[in-house]
Amino acid sequence: MSLSLLILLQFAFADENFKDYDFTGLQREDNNPYTVDKGVYQFQWNFRKGFKKSDSTSCQSEDCIVHFVNTQSRSCMCFGDYSSEYGSIITSENCIKFTYKHKEKQEAEVSAEIYLYCSQNKTETAEDQTTRAVIKMYYPQGCKVEPKKDDPKKSQKKSLSFGSIMLIVISSLIVFLFLLGLLLNILVFKKRGIAVIPLLFFWTSLPGLMKDGLRFLFSPCISGKTGYSNQTGKL
After folding, report:
1. DSSP assignments along the chain, one per residue
2. Is the pTM of this model over 0.70?
């Protein structure tokens, strides 16, 4: 497996750990990095993005994320490479820590630590601790993003049940068959008046059939309609 693929996998896992954060707006253009003055020196860095110093003979690596620049001689020292990024969430301090390392030729290894704190101040500080640069950023992007609340109107909408769907289908089918029978009676069978109603005998007898059904339900032995007769004798 190539080194570049390992780096991509490393960043993919790191971003998964920060899925509750939104870092939008923290990265800057290469010609406008974050800057903190320290006398004749300057700390210059970008957020999770390497860049090279075009106005310096040193620090020409695009992988360098933190530059320590002498503003008089324009010499520069790199404190960390973006490809070495390791990120972790420090819950107790309400911040995220990004660690970077750099080793050039036979020099001692140096490192940079960038802390992103949850704050509305939008300020930065930087300290040089010999072989380690400590940078602290206070920005709203360091705060966890609150999950979006569901729209109450949308949450009230529920999908139709199977029974509701069947009721709609059956009702639509009955209306369709009724209209089809109506057209056939008028156009094909040339019926007029009340006779155009499909299954006229069924619809006119339906109330009586329902009434008889109720009577038989409560008094099976009672007959009050023509067509039914009392049953006597033993079964």
Report:
1. --HHHHHHHHHHHHHHHTTT---TT----TTS-EEEEETTEEEEE-SS-----TTSSS---TTEEEEEEETTT--EEEEEEGGG-EEEEEGGGTEEEEEEEE--TTSPPEEEEEEEEE-SS-EEEEEEETTEEEEEEEEGGGSPPPPPPPPHHHHH--PPPHHHHHHHHHHHHHHHHHHHHHHIIIIIS---GGGGSTTHHHHHHHHHHHHHHHHHHH-TT---STT-----S--
2. no
